[in-house]
């Protein structure tokens, strides 16, 4: 009898071990909602790459299914959908949420702020990630860097912008804090979903828009309607984001959490490299195929007015929002230190080798 008891006990233990192993390796299926349409490369390519890495590393046990804005029909609703648990993840940009929570605004890009390498250094080693998680904690979600565009161009305009008067009454699509700055100068600012930009410009709903840079802009055809293409000031390092529902993330096995973190980080930086490459290719295309495009830079008068409005608004917003102020002070302090190295390593080299 003792012998059979030992056999039964061994079998029970084996079943328990197998059941435990099976549970830990159970297939997990998440859904991710994008702000972008399904063909908006390289934003969508980055998300697809991230999901593929997670699936490969998990031996097919962690699947992330992607819904583009064409499918879920709410490009600017993805934050609420992740918050509610309708989707476990989203891919978007933090500055789209300024109307919901101004404390989320600093984690995409700020006018006259950090370049992409400076911003990545701040996120991962200068306290930026900790501040971002602090800002998103009230929304029961995490935010992770989701891919950088690098410095963005200042926009496509139907007419040349020579003076501050030319900005007054101008209808322009421009998101984030830059929109607040231009509104201060009399521009009529709006935000339009990416899939509707060309139509709005073509039909005259707007007079100007900014999108990203040559690599993405040329494919959307803005140059056919607005030939004046201005260099940037407003988004020197535009970091997209992965939004992750906190409850869903905490329920993941630890190894899946690590797989997800690694995949997001690799895909994010790869998007930066790919977009940089494609912008250089598109710039060469502009020179040979679209000579009617006029590359312009805003005048010193306009730039100085933008900087003054930017500082005024930063002070007002910081005075009213302690967490926003904490993030902006952190960026300013880090930028003061890192910009010295940027100047030595990049600017001083380039000015002698162009």
UniProtKB/TrEMBL annotation:
It holds the Pfam family DctP. Keywords: Signal. The keyword Signal applies. SUPFAM superfamilies: Periplasmic binding protein-like II. The keyword Ribonucleoprotein does not apply. It comes from the Bacteria. This is TRAP transporter substrate-binding protein. It comes from Sulfurospirillum tamanense.
